[in-house]
Amino acid sequence: MDYRPAGVECQRIVLASSSPRRAELLRLLVPRFETRSPEVDEGKITRPVDLLRVAMAKAQAVRRGPEEILIAADTGVFHRGLHLGKPRGLDEARHMLSRLSGGWHHVYTGLVVLRDRVVRRQLVCTKVRFRDLSREDIDWYLSREEVCDKAGAYAIQGAAAAFVAEIRGDFTNVVGLPLPVLYRILRELGWCPWL
Asked: Model confidence over 13-32: pLDDT tens digits?
């Protein structure tokens, strides 16, 4: 093709994230997009709805013009009403994994998509149940993966998949970008995947 099809200039996708996991997921829908790393003060997260506030702040921090479709997300793990953020060290990570052992927890992602003056916000929830974990299980996992950049001290797409007994909801949401919801929102905003 020796010309740009109509509408391509309105198809510019920007991901407001420095997460390689989110970029890898988005690439499943959008082969070419730009990433911008937002620098925001996330503040205190106590409720799932706070994740939408953080995602909106990320989007606004990197927004440059109305011609782009901007995607931002923030993911958090909640257990019995308590937010489990990114651990500050291995001891805190071990404590988090011990809390998650043998029960259900919720993974929420606050998703924000901006196009021109239109803003779409959605809070997506997935329930995850871990099997009972021994101290040896936890030590093995912590020796294999860097967890201090991961909410709840685990990455479901990594070795922690061995701990999952059951999942209810969207797997990609637990990784950090709920693709079914994102695809629906992008289509509602006029994005055409075949252009």
From this structure: 999 999 999 999 999 999 99
